[in-house]
Design a protein that fits this description.
This protein has helices at about 10-25, 40-55, 70, and strands at about 1-10, 25-30, 35, 60-65. Helices cover about 35% and strands about 25% of the residues. The chain is globular.
Length: about 90
């Protein structure tokens, strides 16, 4: 399943740790947005790891599932390079 993982982190050190962890699981599409393609078990482990890095009183992490039908409806505009999870193998 594919997910859009976003965050709003108040502290720079925590932000850097969250970003570094997400870079291991997905592709950054904007500063605080990552496309992640994984199964439920790995997603659960990722969320638990992220929750250990953040301050739940100050920070937020959002995980939006993106179904195959919804992916077909995504609108992308602009001149930047398009990245696809289909061309990567995530270990």
């Amino acid at each position: 399943m594919k997910y859009l993982v976003c965050y709003d982190i108040c502290n720079h050190r925590r932000l850097a740790r969250v970003a570094k962890m997400l870079e291991r699981y997905g592709i950054r599409v904007q500063y605080s947005f990552f496309n992640v393609d994984t199964n439920d078990q790995i997603l659960d482990a990722l969320i638990k790891s992220l929750l250990n890095l953040i301050d739940e009183k100050e920070d937020k992490i959002y995980v939006y599932p993106i179904c195959d039908e919804c992916r077909k409806k995504v609108i992308i505009d602009g001149t930047g390079a398009l990245l696809s999870l289909d061309s990567y193998i995530i270990l």
